[in-house]
Amino acid sequence: MSTVRNVAVLVGSLRRESFNRKVAQALMELAPTSLRLSIVEIGQLPFFNEDEEVSPPPTWTAFRQLINAADAVLFVTPEYNRSVPGVLKNAIDVASRPYGKNNWDGKPGAVVSVSPGAIGGFGANNNLRQSLAMLNVPAMPAPEMYIGRVESLINAEGNLDDKTQQFLQKFAQAFAVWIEKNRSA
User: Fold this and answer.
1) For 54-67, how does the pLDDT look when each residue is reduced to its tens digit (9 = 90+)?
2) 84-90: long-range contacts at Cβ-Cβ below 8 A with a sequence spacing of 24 or more?
3) Could you say which architecture CATH assigns to the domain 5-182?
């Protein structure tokens, strides 16, 4: 794997001290050198409205270009009401349109769900995978990544503990292999 793959990272939480953003940043630091992970911001995207396709907002166009240019996608999401946050679903919808221009198509993906709850955002993780199947994003089936009770895994400096970092590093290495096996020619 000598080629560096660009991975668009979408963080489903907008909170300034988001646990999800901390996990995404840790993954960016722990990923193998064959991956270049970059967070693609989604909070500025106007709600998807097909009427706007006549003259798409510049933020939609820029976001679509970033997703289109990525070799793979990584979703790091909290769980809101057993599903993904609206801001993440909106981003997915924006980049899947207009009809016939699915920017997610064929990009290998992975899902990380992070939650203070015991089951680590299982509902959001599973729900997101359903959308990814529809968008033709081959989502890495294993290792699965559910991080529950996340607040107990962060030290006083705001960093994840060693065991969690090791787990994230193994996940990132598996994702690099998944990308190579599933990337479009």
Assistant:
1) 999 999 999 999 99
2) 84/12, 84/124, 84/127, 84/128, 84/131, 85/12, 85/13, 85/14, 87/12, 87/14, 87/42, 87/43, 87/45, 88/10, 88/12, 88/42, 88/128, 89/131, 90/42, 90/45, 90/47, 90/48
3) 3-Layer(aba) Sandwich (3.40)
